[in-house]
Amino acid sequence: MATTMEQIVNLSKQRGFVFPGSEIYGGLANTWDYGPLGVELKNNIKKAWWKKFVQQSPYNVGLDAAILMNPKTWEASGHISNFNDPMMDCKECKSRHRADKLLESQLDTDALERPIEALSFAEMEALIREHNIKCPVCGAQNFTPIRQFNLMFKTYQGVTESSSDEIFLRPETAQGIFVNFKNVQRTMRKKVPFGIAQVGKSFRNEITPGNFTFRTREFEQLELEFFCKPGEEEEWFDYWRTFSRNWLLSLNMKEDHVMLRDHEEEELPHYSKGTTDIEYKFPFGWGELSSISSRTDYDLSRHMEVSGEDLQYIDQATNERYIPYVIEPSLGADRVTLAFLIDAFEEERISENETRSVLHFHPAIAPYKAAVLPLSKKLKDEALGIYEQLSEEFMVDYDETGSIGKRYRRQDEIGTPYCITYDFDSKEDGQVTVRHRDTMEQVRLPISEVAGFLKEKIKF
Ligand code: ATP
């Protein structure tokens, strides 16, 4: 049976993956808190990304830039002008709309004296009244006044709330990378092509958040800005597209749940030479997990223009001087965590009248790598000894309550790939039973070999 979002939301809450935010106060819409298992899962996914995109990459290095940035950054990136929408609500059905889009869809805007972008809010409101513009949801002609709606979260730095102290929470991690381009290139003596990777929180005051952690106002991104020589961008665009997709598949994401979608020319901003989204087949439909964009020299050029700093790269070998082109693979940590959770979930029929619930995570991202289970409470001390030894190297669970069958099921439900059972024979032969989550097969292994076994199995 197909997995539903309701199943995933319930499972997340019941098993400690994701809780509704601020729950004891009745929650805060569309905020979610990662519980003990969720934080492990998400951290493991971020680590797996860092491993392939930074640690094992001959090209890339990492960065952790501040969330709060000089507001000029957002002027250069285009977020101040482009993230600004004139919003209004329908008074009847409370649906929210962009005033300029409503006018464009119901009016011959070419006939207007000036383009819509050049109109004041009062002028737009007058047009909406004169031309009986309707709410596309309920057909009413009764709107609130227009308000400026910027997707960026604004706050104030320091004690005064004047416009000169305005500051924004970053809507993407990318700009922290661009403003550090020279710092990184110089200190790390990097030669183009090279990339800078960053993982961190971003904030967008989304008009329509929803679908659990798919779209929230606070989220985490994994971004790489890869700098290459102009003319070589196509080759690198293909390289990072393939690399990004392979990364998902190497963590066992099902191939038929992943699709690459190239943007149409009309969807692209003027500076872009192409964007491919990697989409995942969520229970609510295909949705963007990641996007890989070929951004030309737009970002660095803009920062050069606005800051006055020379951000050109000098090729020491040829003395050539140029602004590198950028390929940007960008992935949402929360979206991809949700996708791995959905992808791993199975209600498996194991006999005529028995099912078990399993999360088939790749061992590298599973919250616990193993659970140590004494067959009887009388064996607690020896089992705890193994637990302590393993927990020096791995995230492991320990459970002594309930029948061994129930304990196996509990570990299946949270995706623990191996259960290690210490029984009465273990005292005699120094061996434990290792049970595999997916096959439910069991093997005997000397206690001294368990750590090495796990290390091998969780390799990524
Ligand atoms: P969408 O079209 O879904 O709004 P986007 O095209 O605006 O996404 P990008 O700006 O390309 O997204 O951001 C890169 C990645 O960051 C996305 O692929 C997604 O995984 C993640 N992301 C963006 N917005 C959100 C959000 N509101 N909540 C969770 N993740 C997000």
TrEMBL record:
GO terms for cellular component: cytosol; extracellular exosome; microvesicle. It catalyses: tRNA(Gly) + glycine + ATP = glycyl-tRNA(Gly) + AMP + diphosphate. The keyword ATP-binding applies. PANTHER family: DNA POLYMERASE SUBUNIT GAMMA-2, MITOCHONDRIAL, GLYCYL-TRNA SYNTHETASE/DNA POLYMERASE SUBUNIT GAMMA-2. Keywords: Aminoacyl-tRNA synthetase, ATP-binding, Cytoplasm, Ligase, Nucleotide-binding, Protein biosynthesis. GO terms for molecular function: ATP binding; bis(5'-nucleosyl)-tetraphosphatase (asymmetrical) activity; catalytic activity, acting on a protein; glycine-tRNA ligase activity; transferase activity. Homodimer. One of its GO terms (biological process) is glycyl-tRNA aminoacylation. It is an enzyme of class 6 (ligase). Substrate binds at residues 98, 172, 219-223, 328-332. Catalyzes the attachment of glycine to tRNA(Gly). Gene3D superfamilies: Anticodon-binding domain (3.40.50.800), Bira Bifunctional Protein, Domain 2 (3.30.930.10). InterPro entries: aa-tRNA-synt_IIb (IPR002314), aa-tRNA-synth_II (IPR006195), aa-tRNA-synth_II/BPL/LPL (IPR045864), Anticodon-bd (IPR004154), Anticodon-bd_dom_sf (IPR036621), Gly-tRNA_synthase/POLG2 (IPR027031), Gly_tRNA_ligase_bac (IPR022961), GlyRS-like_core (IPR033731). Its main location: cytoplasm. ATP binds at residues 204-206, 214-219, 288-289, 332-335. Belongs to the class-II aminoacyl-tRNA synthetase family. Its EC number is 6.1.1.14. It comes from Pullulanibacillus camelliae. Residues 6-374 form the Aminoacyl-transfer RNA synthetases class-II family profile domain. It is found in: Cytoplasm. This is Glycine--tRNA ligase. Coiled coil: none annotated. HAMAP family: Gly_tRNA_synth_B (MF_00253_B). CDD domains: GlyRS-like_core, GlyRS_anticodon.
